[in-house]
Structure formats: structure tokens, C-alpha cells
Design goal:
Elements (H helix, E strand, L loop, with lengths): L1 H4 L3 E7 L2 E8 L1 E3 L4 E2 L6 E2 L5 H13 L10 H4 L12 H5 L16 H11 L12 H4 L17 H14 L3 H13 L20 E3 L7 E3 L15 E2 L1 H12 L6 H7 L4 E2 L9 E4 L4 E4 L5 E10 L2 E8 L4 E7 L5 H13 L2
Helix pairs in contact: 2-7, 2-8, 8-9
Length: 341
């Protein structure tokens, strides 16, 4: 797969929390000829939504927030025109219906992304509040709770909720209450312009350019936000999946809730599975309604990631890449091997 699809990154598989396969491919730094290794950290894009969801559910567990609280009650200073019917549950399950800061489902998303970056320089997006002007004035797509629509803006608002309730920064809360408790020793929020050692540069394949790749420094947001962008090793991600399902992040009751599918992502099956979204997790179900896999995907320019858990096999799979769109095919190849196709 690495040879045929140009995958660059790390694949790690654990069973019952113990590694059974780890292998790295490609270069962490093409400029300095540094290869990717099992210790390399990668931006994980929207895989980070899982961390935000857990941090919110921890607030629910501590009774500082209720799932059916109106989101406006926490965010009136940030977004006074937010529909008061939108609840914390709606934002977590992507059923709020609000306009997104970037509409990822657009048929012409590449042109729309180019237009967005031309009018709003990406280097200015360094914190959750910086995204508000990009969606606060947009018309909603549908009334709250009507259906699912993938939405990063809702998770930006959840990040602001975390800050409002705790009085701490989003990054501080997730680092202390999620990463530390899960044993994610090297996970963090470094900016693209402040990367430390053992962190991969992100690369875009350049169409017709003088070199086969260019870095993503001018192509994506410099800092993480509550909708994505943390940096993790593959071991960090599999540690998170293990800690989540074994109750090290949430109580037994809230863990069950966190791992329960909530809403249909689409009516039709894809690859023979029914797809449902939960609290920061996508679940695929078989014809009997049993969960075959849960986890999340992440894609941004120069970062491509997958974290999956397979309950029947008790396997965790982390696929982290530092070339755009490279983790998807690898993730499905590993999936097919696990399922036995």
C-alpha cells in the first residue's frame, strides 16, 4: 500500500492495548532527509474532535453542563444570535444545523477553500474565537435536531463552552484532563510555525510544480482548535482509544453513553455498512445493528489520520500520515484485513 498509494506516515495496531504491529513509511522531513518513525508526531486534524467530545462529557459527568442545556446560555458573549434551541447535544452530534466556518460537503470545496483563504488569511486563525467571524452571521441549514450534517463550527463552540465553564484554555483542559489521563505522553498543540523535534512536516503533492511536494505551512491553519489539529503519535492515539473504552476518562455510565451511536449520518449504506454519528465518534454497523468499528477520520492539507476501534476483535488501529489524503486507502486496507475480506 505504501508503495502503490504513496502513503507516508505510521500504522499501529494494538490488541487489548498491546502493540501487535507498528511500521512507518516515508519522510518526516524531506528537506533534512529525516524518516518517519514510530515516535514521530503528526497533526491529526478532525480526529481531535474526539478529545473535545470527551472534555465536554467530563463536564457533564461533573454536572457542570447538561447535554440538553442550551448552548447560548454559555456562549451569549461570543455568539448572541445563536439559536436558543441549539443544545450541547446538538453540537456534539452535529445536528445543530448551523452554518460551518467552512462547508466541507460542498461540491466545489476546492474553489471555496481558495476563496476563503484569499479573504481570510489562515495565519490569523490561532484560537477558537478567531473562527467566529467565519460562521456567526451565516444562515442555518435546518432547524436544530432535524438531521445530521458534518459541522466543525459546532465543535468550535464546544471549545468555547469548555473555556467558559472551566475558566481555563481549551488546550490546557484537554492536555490535563484527556491527554494526561489517557497516557498520551507526547500529545499536544504545537503550532505549525513552532514545531519541536520528532514532529513531521506536512506535505501537499504539487500539481506540475518544480518539486514533487511542498509543505503545508501556507495551506492550513497554524494552530489547533476544538474542531481539530492536535499533534499525536500513533501510540498516543491507540492509548486514547484504550483509555476511553476502559473508563479511564469517563465514568462507566458516561462511557457507555460516549460509545453509543446517536444519529444516522446518511440514509444509504456505504461499503455495506450503516453509518451513525455519536459524541465525536463515527460508528459503522452491520445488518444486525452491531457496531463493527468506531472512531474518527481527519483530513487537512498535509495531514491525514484515522483512529479506529474494532470491538469484536478488540483491536485499535491508528493510521497517521503527513501527505494530504494518504490515510484513507491505508485505513480501508487494514480494515479489510481485519474483517477478513
Amino acid at each position: 500500500m505504501a508503495e502503490d498509494e504513496g502513503f507516508s506516515g505510521t500504522v499501529r495496531v494494538t490488541r487489548q492495548g498491546q502493540p501487535v504491529f507498528t511500521r512507518s513509511f516515508g519522510m518526516a522531513s524531506r528537506r533534512w532527509s529525516v524518516p518517519n518513525t514510530s515516535d514521530t508526531g503528526f497533526r491529526v486534524a478532525s480526529v481531535s474532535k474526539m478529545f473535545t467530545a470527551v472534555a465536554v462529557l467530563q463536564l457533564v459527568e461533573r454536572k457542570q453542563v447538561r447535554l440538553d442545556d442550551t448552548l447560548l446560555g454559555f456562549l451569549e458573549d461570543h455568539m448572541p444570535r445563536l439559536d436558543p434551541r441549539i443544545t450541547v447535544r446538538h453540537a456534539l452530534t452535529m445536528t445543530a444545523g448551523i452554518g460551518d466556518w467552512f462547508e466541507e460537503g460542498s461540491d466545489d470545496w476546492e474553489a471555496e477553500w481558495a476563496a476563503l483563504t484569499a479573504s481570510h488569511p489562515l495565519y490569523l486563525l490561532r484560537g477558537n474565537k478567531d473562527y467566529l467571524p467565519l460562521f456567526a452571521g451565516k444562515q442555518p441549514h435546518f432547524p436544530p435536531g432535524e438531521r445530521y450534517l458534518y459541522n466543525g463550527a459546532g465543535y468550535i463552540l464546544l471549545g468555547l463552552l469548555i473555556e467558559a465553564v472551566t475558566g481555563r484554555s481549551y488546550e490546557e483542559v484537554v492536555t490535563g484532563d484527556v491527554f494526561a489521563r489517557a497516557g498520551m505522553a507526547t500529545a499536544g498543540f504545537p503550532a505549525l510555525d513552532n514545531l519541536g523535534p520528532d514532529i513531521a512536516d506536512g506535505y501537499l503533492t504539487a500539481a506540475g510544480g518544480p518539486t514533487p511536494y511542498r509543505t503545508n505551512h501556507y495551506a492550513t491553519t497554524p494552530c489547533a482548535a476544538a474542531d481539530g489539529g492536535a499533534t499525536c503519535t500513533a501510540a498516543d492515539l491507540t492509548a486514547f482509544a484504550h483509555a476511553l473504552r476502559h473508563g479511564r476518562l469517563l465514568s462507566e455510565e458516561i462511557t457507555r453513553l460516549a460509545l453509543t451511536p446517536q444519529v444516522d449520518e446518511r440514509e444509504e449504506k456505504v461499503r455495506g455498512y450503516r453509518w451513525k454519528y455519536g459524541f465525536g465518534l463515527t460508528h459503522i454497523l452491520d445488518d444486525e445493528g452491531s457496531v463493527v468499528r468506531w472512531g474518527h477520520t481527519g483530513e487537512e492539507d498535509g495531514a491525514s489520520a484515522r483512529l479506529y476501534h474494532y470491538p469484536r476483535q478488540d483491536l485499535d488501529v491508528a493510521v497517521l500520515g503527513n501527505v494530504s489524503w494518504c490515510a484513507g486507502a491505508m485505513g480501508w486496507a487494514v480494515h479489510d484485513a481485519i474483517i477478513g475480506i
